[in-house]
Amino acid sequence: MLVGLANAADQDQKAQAAAAKDKSEVLEEKASAEGSKTLPTPAETITKQQAQSVDPTGEEPLDDAITCLARSIYWEANRKDHAEMEAIAHVVMNRLGHKGFPNTICGVVKQGQEQGACQFSWWCDGRPDDASEDEPYSQVKEIARKALNRQLKDPTDGALYFHHLKITPNWSSEYIKTVEVGEHVFYKPAGGKAK
């Protein structure tokens, strides 16, 4: 009987994860449509339970929008400051559909790997990309869910770039600083054109 309950719970978790991945593809497509202001319908939004069912141990391959977005938030933010985590989520979301960036979240996150100049440092740092802390990873998946559902206000004013406060990359002078959030500075291009 216990085996039957465990199998049923496992099947439910897999069904919830599959539903979340399907919905995230639709939401990602809507977000990448240039100028799309259409909010998702209630049936299209990802529920908290569905989002938490995706990549439950933080070790799955980066091949779906929720996992790619959550891992970017997890590794780029300090995992303590919600505002900073939301700001980083918005940079990824803001890049969707922007000329010069891929039209998928995983594409945005992995961009530049082929040239050895990754857009997100955690992706090319040579270290394991697994999320190792359950509570912070659960929190970033919730932020990723809300970002995909477009339930968060963008604190970055449309930023496409950011860097840590302790560094000043040479590219930062080419863009307009929009805000500092937590330990990061956010930028957008003049005239809205990405380079």
List keywords for this structure.
195 residues; mainly alpha; Arc Repressor Mutant, subunit A; three-stranded antiparallel beta sheet; 43% helix
Helix content: 40-55%
Arithmetic mean pLDDT: 84
Enumerate the spans where pLDDT stays under 50 for 5 or more consecutive residues.
none
> Which class of the domain at 63-156 in CATH terms?
Mainly Alpha
Q: Structural class, from secondary structure content?
A: mainly alpha
Sheet with most strands: 3 strands, antiparallel
Secondary structure layout plus pairing:
Layout: H1 2-32, H2 48-53, H3 65-76, H4 82-95, H5 105-110, H6 134-148, E1 161-164, E2 175-181, E3 184-189
Mind explaining what this structure looks like?
It contains 6 helices and 3 strands, in the order ααααααβββ. The protein is mainly α. It has a domain at 63-156: Arc Repressor Mutant, subunit A, CATH 1.10.10. The model has no long low-confidence stretch (mean pLDDT 84).
Summarize the model shown:
The chain is mainly α.
